[in-house]
# Entry
Amino acid sequence: MQKLSNSIQLAHCLLKDRLNEAKIIVDATAGNGNDTLFLAQNALNNAQIYAFDIQKEAIENTKALLIKNKDNINLPLENISFIHDSHENIDNYIQTKVDIAIFNLGYLPGGDHKFTTKDDTTLKTIDKILNNLNINGYVAIVMYPGHEEGSKEYQSIKLFVKDLPKKSFTVGWYKMINHNFNAPALCWIEKVGEYA
# Structure
């Protein structure tokens, strides 16, 4: 049975069924590769995954994790593009519609905490993905309000998504109410209609 004790587990649970149909999948923040691995384990064997990270260490960690687990993933490693660049530049790499995207914001676990995602580039990327998301496509955004930049991202994303038109998107916001206020939170977006 799938555990739902944190925002990442919930994001994975919500994405799992949709991965049975997704062809173009984006991990906007590769980090240590855990989300990319989850996507590869549950994706169709002809899906394409794009894993972005601005830190070379994160890309190398993600590649190593996928190679180590290559016998436990559903698609060939050639179907995973490891992109050492900011997710803000997503339109330089993906010109087709996207079915699923996941963001796991903040800093690289075990890495230098000076390098963290920023609210301005994160919002630009979310907007680009929403514009290029297929109808019935999903975006999962895990946020960490417990550090200064993470708190800014959390507030900025909340303001941005609450104004998305309901004819185009359904937006959910998940936060554990019996945990510390700074506990990670999940924003869940489903595209239900055209967005301009």
